Amino acid sequence: MGSISFANALGIHPLALKLRDRRTELLASNLANVDTPHYKARDIDFRKVLKGVTDPDPALGLSLTHPAHIDIDPIPKEPPTLYRIPAQPSMDGNTVESEQEHVRFGENALQYEASLNFVGSDFAGLKTAIKGE
């Protein structure tokens, strides 16, 4: 009987959860600083960062070529942060647009929950496979 690889079984979902969590922090920080003069709204490009993880640039030449190699976390601790250009610039230099931030925060929360559901169903499938049901 072969071993079960959690990394293969869960796919990209644990990485997506980690990235969504970081995006939640950024969006919450934007909302918390909606009235802070000169605060610049920040975000990450979720798709671009996740694509870089799932489809790495071959020009970098990084790959595991031996089982003893240490695998690094594919999502950087601090993904590249982008600054938003507001549709309606504020007089005090703050670039947070409250309504847009609430929409982005809500969308991110729903996508986070969807990823959690995928991971939960993956674990349920693994449990069934382990029990042999």
From TrEMBL:
Keyword line: Bacterial flagellum, Cell projection, Cilium, Flagellum
* Domain Flagellar basal body rod protein N-terminal residues, every copy: 16-40
Q: Name one GO cellular component term.
A: bacterial-type flagellum basal body, rod
- What coarse category fits the chief subcellular location reported for this protein? other
Primary role: Structural component of flagellum, the bacterial motility apparatus. Part of the rod structure of flagellar basal body.
Q: What NCBIfam families would the database entry show?
A: FlgB
Q: Supply the name of the protein.
A: Flagellar basal body rod protein FlgB
